[in-house]
Amino acid sequence: MLKIEELKDLTAQELAAKGRDLRQELFNLRIQQATSQLEKPARLRELRRDVARIETRISQLRLTKAA
Fold first, then answer.
1. What is the tally of structural domains in the chain?
2. Cα–Cα distance between 48 and 12 in angstroms, integer?
3. Please, how many CA atoms are within 13 Å of residue 65, restricted to the half-sphere of its CB?
4. CATH number at residue 46
5. Are 15 and 62 in contact (CB under 8 A)?
6. Is 80 exceeded by the pLDDT of residue 67?
7. Going by C-beta distance under 8 Å and a sequence separation of 6 or more, which residues neighbour residue 49?
8. Which of 5, 26, 30, 56 is least crowded, fewest Cβ atoms below 10 Å from its Cβ?
9. pLDDT for res 1
């Protein structure tokens, strides 16, 4: 699980790359869930929230640059 303090130190490019990685992992876990091979269902929830944290931080960076 990502902490917001960790995300504050990352650049927009690093955040985008991390978001892509997490989305890929989320996709793979959804495939595992569909085939009943998922061991940790709670990981799906964690990943969704981590992606949301990253998207929020990217939005914050955009707003500060626009201001």
1. 1
2. 19
3. 8
4. 1.10.287.310
5. no
6. no
7. 1
8. 5
9. 83
